[in-house]
Amino acid sequence: MRNFIDLEIFHEAHRIVKSVYAVTRSFPKEEVYGLTSQIRRSAVSIPSNIAEGCGRATEKELARFCNISMGSASELEYQLYLSSELGYLSSDDYHDIKTDLIRCKKRMNAFIQKLR
Length: 116
Prior knowledge:
The chain contains four helices and no strands. By secondary structure, the protein is mainly alpha-helical. The radius of gyration is 14 Å and the shape is elongated.
């Protein structure tokens, strides 16, 4: 069992969540139960699964939850792309979050490989 607070990938994912919440505040009101909600759930799922994996007994289980986080990160990546294409997200915001997300995914992949 690990303390998720000690993991840099957790903090990186947490920063992405805060960025996502900030940029989705300006999304159209008709998307509050649609794309806005889905984007936020995907973003929150990334550090949440890291935290849950840290509470498990083995590194194999932690790796499995980090893999789930990677899936959520890919899901978020598409949702941000869609939001940009729909004009809900500025190109600067899209680029900034996508860059952070790609970096997080690469670090998480390295962490998963280390756990195996």
